[in-house]
UniProtKB/TrEMBL annotation:
Entry protein name: DNA helicase RecQ
Residue ranges of every copy of the Helicase C-terminal domain listed in the record: 215-368
Listed InterPro entries: DEAD/DEAH_box_helicase_dom, DNA_helicase_ATP-dep_RecQ, DNA_helicase_ATP-dep_RecQ_bac, Helicase_ATP-bd, Helicase_C-like, Helicase_HTH, HRDC-like_sf, HRDC_dom
Organism expressing this protein natively: Ulvibacter litoralis
EC code(s) of this entry: 5.6.2.4
Catalytic activity: Couples ATP hydrolysis with the unwinding of duplex DNA by translocating in the 3'-5' direction
Protein family per UniProt: Belongs to the helicase family. RecQ subfamily.
Amino acid sequence: MTQSSKLHELLKVHFGYDTFRPNQLQIIENVLNGSDTLAIMPTGGGKSLCFQLPALYLEGTAIVVSPLIALMKDQVDALTANGIKATFFNSSQPQAEQQQSLEDLKDGKLTLFYVAPESLFLIESILREIKISLFAIDEAHCISSWGHDFRPAYTKLGILKAYFPQTPIIALTATADKATQDDIITQLGVPNADKFLSSFDRKNLYLDVRSGQNRLKQILDFLKNKLDESGIVYCLSRKSTESLAAKLKSAGFKAAAYHAGLSADDRSQIQEDFLNDQTPIIVATIAFGMGIDKSNVRWVIHYNMPKNIEGYYQEIGRSGRDGLPAHTVLFYSFADVIQLRRFVQGTPTEAFQLAKLERMQQFAEALSCRRRALLSYFGETLVEDCGNCDICKSPPNYFDGTLLAQKVCSVITRLREQEALGMVIDVLRGAQNAAVLEKGYQQIKTYGAAKDVSWLDLQQYIIQLLNQGVLEIWFHENGRLLLTPLAKQVLFEGAKIQLAHLNQRKEIASKTEAEETKTTSLLDKLKLLRSVLAKEMGVPAYVVFSDASLNDMVEKLPSNEDEFAMISGVGQAKLDNYAESFLKVINTHQQTLQKKPKKTKKKGAKKGETHKITFELFEQGLSVEEISEKRNLTENTIYGHLMKMHQLGKEIDLFKLISSEEIETIQNAKGKVENPEALKSYFTHFEEKIPYWKIKFAFSLLEN
């Protein structure tokens, strides 16, 4: 079996997925080649798999350095549920449990071993005795003083490469600008590490910035439509978390405050209740969340503005990790800016932190697509507006700003990309202050090119260019402005730029959206079963199955184990452990529906009859690809619908969907597979190159 085939088999058997997410396979193969690796991937992008799968493939134990106890526990629980041998070692464990973890490590019983950076070198003697497959440094931005969560203990990790020169190191983080990325590589002593940057675009997150007026009323209105959903409200101070949590409870919501001033036991209990869906709303300082691997957080609210974009991005990233839609709200007021400025005054990195705070403020005040502004901060250019943020939903009036953008880019070019925002504006306006004259900038060709635009307006237009990805700012080099590839298109290739009129600047929207929550009685039943099983096992509900997996069950309505194996997130361990229970609920629900008296047909689809809609479209002559696009469902789901209708007696020419050669190939494999009655045996035999639906179609045709 080839390496790629083996990796795909491990992915399906242990994690229940048929395909890798962007960059995952390349990163995994890089680690398997023995190369040091830096992986920058968004929250929910599948970072953990990039070291967990190589750990399964390689001999020995993977040592995972993780910053928070909660993060370790969550990942170990999830791995154990997937049939993978893993444990952790930290100060929260009883001594006997610590000793058992170390004994298992010494005896080579573990595939993954999680440890805090503060504890890593306490077990150095054991590490030197065992076979280590790889080192994974999770939340690697903590090693950099440029990062937003710097932890001194991480700086000691640079010695790992000296101690274990032949063992590959993979560093992973969701939030690192260019300065932080370079610092991670330097601090870890891996100058030749291959760098993999995945897109930072979390398309499922709705980005919403609102005025800070009447925040409580806005939050209460927002939550009216989200009674059964989990969410986090971030506040700046401990006092405000307690105050807001009390107000939410008075309004009838289940909420709890969380901050570093609570006892360790209280914090642990609050977190457990949140993970297990007992307390759906947490009002917290930034002390909460870094170790939360809860997949079904449906919304995140920032009651106050964060101090930098990295923190904001990481915190909103805790919602929608399952890929389903999630709503993020940022309340903005200048009072927050003033308070945050006070926090950083007198610190060793004051200038650096103030620059990042200013960029955060610019994002909150943006008049162009929020997602373009967010992605441009991380060096990623989105050419078109996203359509999934408050600005795109209610855009300001724009004008053709191409000429002004060209003037700005031209000045930055002639300043050799060495000057910060203030100097660029001074040169554009033809200022005659000492700083300009001493450097001789009055001599450059574009000096005074925008003297008819006020200083403040020019500042706002340049901020829009930053937010649109035309310009880039390097905070670690005195905030100098640089041109991006898009800027060169503006200067030389005729690319057009739209800028928002400043005199028509609208108030940041304060309306709340009535978002329709789609629930079905079957989904509720599946959630209840998941909750019961999770409670019995003592793990969070999402460790059993994510919301995405439950929604896939509702969509596909599996009726047997082979069909259940095709559900997203169902690996071998979960198939063995849960298929019978969940199939019983699904089948009972379907039987109940069939017994109910028929109702007068209304416009739209009946719940549970989605396969009939697909069949009607197929009969109208639409291709599988066209139906998939029209219904916003995967092609595999469409094929499943057609198979179900064929089994129900509808005439479908299956030979249009599968060739006679493929049928013959599947028939010839019958005597070679381990279990000829199980579809999975054929799927594995063909190294996952023939999808389940074709195998099912072939069997159906062979039986007729």
